[in-house]
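Re: that backbone. Tokens:
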């Protein structure tokens, strides 16, 4: 059963482990991938770890993550760090797994948005709502671009 937070439940939610990010966001903030607002990213369910110990094992939860391009670690940053809801940050991992991504690569928020068919309020993103074939084609196209760029780079030859 899907639950939707009441006004009181939404107002009392403090963001748990993301409380600083949660409190700094305006109420009308929307995830740039799924377009759900703060209230819509809340999910009712089982909590684990320190959140379960502090807040109880069942209740509202929502993740916020600064999604970044792992290519930046090797000097190939394609997009700036962007705050996403937890479900969309996890979407990147799901897309990479299904697309057979290797190495330091992350889908950008706009690329993830292209692959997301539907994001329901207060629910997890289901596999049936993701276009994994689109993710494969995006990754393949970017791989071809990178490969052709490598071919155009001339080897260094010192001046005589």
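Recovered sequence:
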């Amino acid at each position: 059963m899907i639950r939707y937070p009441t006004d009181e439940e939404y107002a009392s939610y403090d963001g748990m482990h993301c409380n600083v990010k949660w409190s700094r966001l305006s109420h009308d903030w929307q995830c740039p991938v799924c377009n759900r607002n703060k209230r819509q990213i809340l999910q009712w369910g089982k909590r684990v770890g320190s959140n379960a110990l502090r807040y109880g094992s069942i209740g509202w939860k929502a993740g916020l993550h600064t999604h970044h391009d792992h290519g930046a670690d090797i000097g190939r940053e394609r997009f700036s760090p962007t705050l996403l809801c937890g479900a969309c940050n996890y979407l990147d991992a799901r897309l990479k797994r299904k697309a057979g991504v290797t190495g330091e690569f992350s889908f950008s928020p706009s690329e993830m948005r292209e692959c997301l068919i539907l994001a329901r309020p207060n629910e997890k993103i289901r596999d049936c709502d993701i276009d994994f074939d689109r993710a494969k084609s995006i990754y393949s196209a970017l791989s071809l671009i990178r490969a052709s760029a490598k071919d155009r780079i001339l080897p260094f030859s010192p001046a005589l």
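Strands lie at 43-46, 58-61, 64-67, 82-85. The chain has one domain: 7-150.
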